[in-house]
Amino acid sequence: MADILILYYSRYGNVAEMARYVGRGVESVNTCRALIRTVPAVSAASEAGAGDVPAQGPPFVSKDDLARCAGLALGSPTRFGNMAAPLKYFLDSTGDLWLSGKLAGKPAAVFTSTSSLHGGQESTLLSMMLPLLHHGMVIMGVPYSEPALMSTQAGGTPYGASHVAGIESNYKITEEEKQICITLGARLAELSLKLSV
After folding, report:
1. How many CB atoms lie within 10 A of CB 108?
2. Given the DSSP bridges, would you call strands 71-79 and 82-83 parallel, antiparallel or unpaired?
3. Which contacts qualify for 23-27: CB closer than 8 Å, 24 or more apart?
4. How many C-beta atoms surround the C-beta of residue 66 within 10 A?
5. CB-CB contact of 81 with 127 (8 Å)
6. What value does the mean pLDDT take over residues 70-79?
7. Could you report the per-residue pLDDT of 157-171, keeping only the tens digit for each?
8. What is the pLDDT of residues 54-73, one digit of tens each?
9. pLDDT above 70 as % of the chain
10. CA angle 38, 122, 76 (to 5 degrees)
C-alpha cells in the first residue's frame, strides 16, 4: 500500500474539506491510501507551535510521516499571496530531510483556499512549491484535460486545486472545485506509483 501524505493547515475548515476531496482522489487509485495530517497553529507569543494534539480530525504530522510517504499533497489558506505561517513553520523544520534527500524524486502537488477570486491563489500555490523543489520533489499540477478546469467559475488552476471561500469563509466548495481536488489526488497517486517502481 502506497501512503500519499495530504498535509495541510486550515483555519476555517475550507482547506480541510479540500484535503478530504484530494484524499478521495488518492483512494480511487488501487493500492494507494490517503494519510491526512495537519499542523498546529503557531503561537503569536513565540515561535513555538500552539495548541494540543487535536481531539478530533486528523492528527498532527510528524517528520516521519513526510519521510515515509510515496507522494505529498500540500494545502494551505492564502496569507497575502503566500502559505500560512503554521505550514511554513513545519516545513522550516525539515532541514534534516533535505540534507538526507528523503523526499528527492517523490511527486508533490499543492492546493489552497482564498477569500476572493483574485486573492493570491496562484502565488500561494507557487510559494508552496518552492520548499518542495528544494527537497527535490517532482511537482505536478492539473492538466486542462480535466474539464472542470475549463468550466469553473470559482477556484481551480493548472498549478493546483483552489477554492474561493468568500470574505466570511462560508462559500461551499463548488462541484468543479471538488472535481479538481479529486483529479489532483488521483493524478498524484498514479504518479507516485509510477515513480516508486
Report:
1. 26
2. antiparallel
3. 23/185, 24/181, 24/182, 24/185, 25/181, 25/182, 25/183, 25/184, 25/185, 25/186, 25/187, 25/188, 25/189, 26/73, 26/185, 26/186, 26/188, 26/189, 27/185, 27/189
4. 21
5. yes
6. 97
7. 999 999 999 999 999
8. 667 788 999 999 999 999 99
9. 93
10. 10
Distance CA(124)–CA(119), nearest Å, equals: 9
Q: Which residue has the cell 482564498?
A: 114
Closest CA to 177 of 89, 97, 114, 100: 114
At 112, list the grid cell: 489552497
> Is-contact 82 124, C-beta < 8 A?
yes
- Note the pLDDT tens digit of each residue in 105-124: 999 999 999 999 888 999 99
pLDDT of 147 reads 96
Residue that has been written with the C-alpha cell 493546483 in this structure: 160
Q: For residues 45 and 120, what is the distance between their CA atoms, to the nearest angstrom?
A: 27
Q: Quote the CA–CA distance of 71 and 196 in Å, as a whole number.
A: 9
Mean pLDDT of the residues in the chain: 93
Instruction: Report the pLDDT value the prediction gives residue 194, as an integer from 0 to 100.
Output: 95
Strand 161-164 relative to strand 32-38: parallel, antiparallel, unpaired? unpaired
